[in-house]
Amino acid sequence: MIFENLHVWSPFVKFKNLCYNKPMLISEIQGPLTNIAGVGAAAVSQLKRLGVENAGDLLRLFPRDWEDRSKINVLLDWNKFQKIHVEVTVAGHEWFGFGKMKTLKLIVADKNGMTASLICFNRPFLEKSFPVGARAFVYGAFYRKYGEIQSSAFDLEKPENMQSKILPVYPLTSGLGQAKLRKIIASALKMYGQGIDSELPDSILKKYGLPPKQEVLFMLHAPKSMAEVEKGRYALIFEEFFLFQYAIGMRSIERRGRLPNLEDESNIGKTVKKEPVLTPLQSSLLERLNFKLTQDQLSVCAEINEDLDGPNPMARLMQGDVGSGKTLVAFLACLKVIEQGGQTAFLAPTELLARQHAENAARLLEPLGIRLAFLTGNTKAKGRSRLLQELQKGNIDLIIGTHSLFSQGVQYKNLRLVVIDEQHRFGVLQRSAIIQKGAESNEEKMSPHLLMMSATPIPRTLALSIFGDLDISTIKTMPPGRKPIITYVAGEDKAERVYNFIGQEILQGRQAYFVYPLIEENEDLSLKSAERMFEELKTGFPNHSLALIHSKVAEEEQKRIMEEFRSGKLNILVATSVVEVGVDVPNATCMVIEHADRFGLSALHQLRGRVGRGDLQAYCFLIYGKKITEDGRVRLTVMKETNDGFIIAEEDLRLRGPGDIGGVEQSGYHLGFTIADPARDFKILQEARVAAFKLLEQTKF
Description:
The chain is α/β, with parallel strands linked by helices.
């Protein structure tokens, strides 16, 4: 169970002694697998491959599906259900193929005389087991082929062995089949299934009509009906979400002294129109701009200002597409804190990106009298020592840098706001480290305000899971003057036409990215590598300047290349996905992604966002190979049809599942749900979140 080893939900877990006849949590059942009938050394090894180490783990190996064999169908139902269960009579035997490839075909007929063929791959013994005239029960998926109804994936049982019930379908591993695993789990249930206590408090079980955990185990492992299965699944999904949300609520309380605002959560992914009450410095900055903020920017600024005026530390995630103007809103937050006498730290994942933020801050904030500093791992010792002294004295208002901002020896006088850009690039321990720096820097030992920024829009379902302890602000509208990026999808046979277009753009003074999934050649020669294509592109564009950048290029060299590209000295930048998070190059109008079907939606969206950063028309070319999969086609279609990062994020969640979405592991939570799915079970997630937070509100800490 998620968080079973954490203390966060212990306030409502009744501690018990571990006597045999006393109620126990499943996590407390540590009996060895060899105690269970049918489990020998081989089975122990097989079960370990499924993550099963003891009897408790075995009880928590829940089915991935259930087969309803309680109903008897007829063959006419073959296309009405995914699988059917039919009583048949063997009408004949046929063989097809030659030699070792010779395969048995059983002709069967139901009570209505309708016939079907059972293709018995690697099961020639069924000829003797089921002679002509024998009665049997067949369970499987049927299809029409060669003018007849067939099945090649089926179970065939004699009437005396037929199991007219609901059978669980478990995840399997080599050497361990369904029948054997069902027997093992049935034995475990018989041995350990009594006296199991629920992880949830009795009040929650009663209020939401949930069966006790002991009953849930039997509903899922040995159900009497599909109605029982659904009841047990709901109970387990609710429990997983409840424990997760309880932990999230506890973290929110520990971090900022309160729970997230449930009333505001219906607006996640939207922006509620608000007008900020601006401070003098904020007003001065906006007056200096040659453009006006979007309504979304103003609304998010208002939400942040309200947080900064509140009694508890802010913990807010600001999400918005690449180029939506999040950095400017973050600078406005810094100004308010500085006016209140506090220091601010702006954290970026790379030196290149940190430097860009520092240059923008110098241009926008230094004229307002803001004292700035820039700190990275490459800051020379002499300059670093003086910088740290000034920082500790409070003579620096805003410091911008990389992970060095929370390294040993860095001390603040009064750090009151931490801004983290591209938050998914930082782990939870790193974020905690700089928050701790802030708490140490003031007399009250109060955590600083925390503002995290993400250019990868987060689906609402995950927002309540991964970032459920944060308030979330959204910027959807782009600054005026930005033109939507035009996206083309093309097969590799159209690549030359794309290259010709790029050449024309460069002749007009524009710049282009070429991105590849590999750095160098590997065994799959069908995939173009960045290194090989760099050499080919140099030949194809002989009159233009090119450079190659990837993760194996030294950091200093990467920095030099990116600076040359930004300044316009380079026409073409050949790269891997390392440019996914990069500096703004307004003159770059073309992004070519080769083997685009090999990239996830989130990566494709981030890469496309590298162009179109100015008022010039930008283009993205998604080139796919001959071996493109159906999922790959779907991803490219989504990219062609929309520039909306929020729509793309939702589709990414649907295709990949919550565990593969960027930032999950870095969030500090492991989404190791055994049966729950935040996207599919969103309504239950909301119910469990309300229940967990209400219990927390009633708890005195």
